[in-house]
Amino acid sequence: MFISVRRRDNDSAIGTMTAYVSPQHQTVDIGILIGSRAMWGSGLGQDAWNTLINWFIKQSGIRKLTAGAMRCNAGMVKLMKRSGMTLEAIRPAQELLDGVPQDMVYFAKFIEH
Fold this sequence. Notes:
The chain is of the alpha+beta class. The protein has 2 helices and 6 strands. The chain has a 6-stranded mixed sheet, with helices on one face.
């Protein structure tokens, strides 16, 4: 799924979300990018994230939601934690940011139906 994140008040696009559904494993890996820096910290990304998570929770055939980010991406790490996801794995020095190795952190939320 590729989803446009838009403001409710004026319908302007502020970012995108992705959801990769694996029916055979009953998992969904989600991601978000709020490209409008003016919207960072406004809570709109968290609202969009929680809306998508809650939609998947209501779907049958989904047992687990996953997401990941560089550990240094504090906003994304907070977003995942605030949505009830828990740290599942760390891949040390997995990615480079400006030539500096960064850990990747992976979060998950199990769904009980």
